[in-house]
Predict the structure.
Amino acid sequence: MHVQQIVNGLMLGSVYVFVGIAFTMIIGIINFVNFSIPALFMLGAMTAWALLNVGVVAPLALVAGLLVGIVASMAVEQVLYKRLSGRDPVISLIGSLAFLILYEHLVIHILGSDQQAFPALLPDFNIRFGDIVVGLGQLCGFAISILLVFGLSYLLKHTPVGRNLRAISESTETATILGINVRRHVQMMFVAVGLFTALGGLLFSLNYLQVSALMGQEIGLKAIAAMIIGGVGSIWGAVVGGMLIGILEVTTIGLFGADTVDIVIYALLLLLLVVRPSGILGGALQSTQRI
Amino acid sequence: MTGYLEGILVVLCINAVLGYAAYLPLSIGQINLGIAGFMAIGAYTSAIVTNELGFPLILGLFSAIAVAAVAAALIAYPVLRTTGIYLAFATFALNEIVRSLFLNIELVGGAAGYPVAVYSGILFPALVAAVVTLLMVYSGATRAHIVLASVRRDEAVSDLFGVNIRLVQLIVFVVSAGLAAAGGSLYAHYFSFIEAQHFTVFLSITTILYVVVGGTRSVWGPIVGALIYTFLPELLRDSGEWRFVIFSALIIAFIAFRPEGIVAPWPSGPGSLVARWVGRSR
Amino acid sequence: MPESLLDIRDLSISYGPIRAISTLTLNLREGEVVALLGANGAGKSSLLRCLAGLEKASSGAVAFRGDDLLRMPPSERVKRGLVLVPEGRQILVTMTIEENLLLGATQRDDRDAVHGEIEELYRRFPNLAERRELAALCLSGGEQQMLAIGRAILAKPKLLMLDEPSLGLSPVFVDELFDYLAVLSESGISMLLVEQNTRKSLTLADRGYVLRLGSVVTSGPARELLEHDDIEAAYLGS
């Protein structure tokens, strides 16, 4: 296994981290499996691409992409909020699936399902560490993902907002009794989810120069697998999982070809779900205790 | 009957059968995202035995169901140990594994797809769909349906009344796989060509969505869902894209505006439900 | 004449066909300790949970410090000074003792005063102080109860509602608990106390209400209720 491959894997993996973190945060705090997240990943990038295509300046297009991701995420919260505290998690899961399909097919309808080339906005600059080559853009993406994780971790541990979120995570009812405005905190989380995920999508497109209405599916599902492998509800688990999947993907392609990637990843996921569902770093998910 | 209309009716039959495959797990509150995978198993099995072994169509169908049922039974033990959202994840992983496996098996064409020699015409799918529907409606009126409803309602209470939850889950999982495989077989023999890329998790998801729109509390739900799903593109004179938007928007609207949610509440209260069931078992 | 703090009129709480509370009328004035007594199922917990905002009232009106309580979201009620110490304490066991206390002060803006008050609390409860950085899981039932009350006090309540605080506590802790409640009452905090331990609560309280199947069957000065043993037997099944 070449070190270069591992490095490539880490770069790819950092994209999964963005999505994985969003996913794991929502599950960890309000026990909601938000399958609309892969669509948010795609929406940010496709919006930016569409705007760039009609001549909008790059910074504006990128920011617009982020905003669309945030708004789309807030729409999910608005509709599903009442369901999220209900006794039937199946309904909210189906609801999030509905949003996934809705967003994806709206984009397919308006922009088509073909893969498109994303304009090369970043300088094509490579950094060399001895024998290893890393693209500047990719390295930046990687750095941002790590910063994000550290930032989130700090927020949760050392700020009042983070404390409130952890309280909500343990018991929504107790948080309510303490006077925490649960709804407002949940809304903040959905905004963060939209932001992180859309950011991940934009970084992916900027670095790999491709974008399509179906990219959410491909990347998103793998990111979900990464999250589960790393440990549901654990932020660092999302990092570990994401990096692991990234490395696994790159080395599998190198060894066996691109077709076997899915089998390897999903077989690992299935194995883990059966043997150790809490994942590598995650704590057990108390699915019935949560309100 | 024009070839076009015939095509739509066959698609309706296939969608109905698939709908029931999705309906069963939903009726006990589980989400099975692996339906497309079992459909793939059914399609390829049926295609292989009729292509290579010269089996007649009906045996192709039965082989498809049998293989899928066995596969489901084998995989059920580990998979059913997971619950709730983990089950959803596990079945989605399962689906992708199956799809990728077929994508890689050169014997059945791999990514290029696999042509199917035996053509079914419209009568066969129609018959199969009719039989499946009758079986479902019949079982809906009997104890089986009440057992399923009580498991969905309250697992603890069902346990107390001697309903073997694990057995119910296993049976539902296996039957669901068999039905999905039947749908796959019908698909293979009508369209004469199958490719692994068709059987994605998204096929499972959209199937679940149209069953939900049709209503998961009534045994006619899958039929209603399949009808809407199949004929909506025709009504809209559309390539088929808008129906996904409409479906998902419908579900979202239901969730947002109907306080009871997308599935209508069980008409009789738990008390009378249990009484009916206990009464029947005397 | 101390002002009316809590004014409940014809309150009803239903869960589907089950009536937990039927047209209940109750009031509490500033500085008072009011005891709510009654057997299990009398609706006492439902009442407190409804006042805290965890459950919906089906009809009736509640005024807290003159404002319509039922329209207020739960976080607003805490901000105005209506704080619940719930049944079973509901301590957040995955969080540290210090964090649990800080959470009590969620609605407050004055960070420095909060820290001062936490230190004061630690002086009173050294067992909590020495484990302040440990997860609350390590506390005994009695210690958790003190933490729960301390947490509630940090919210600067005008009216403190307590749901069965002595449940599951050893006799020694029960005494300590009621001593502390007496101290709190002296400092001006009004209380609505739901308790199984009728003797202790009526000793502490100024007035009492006895509930049965969701309605008030008798009320009056605590002293009087305490003297009527037959009331106890008849309504409290003790």
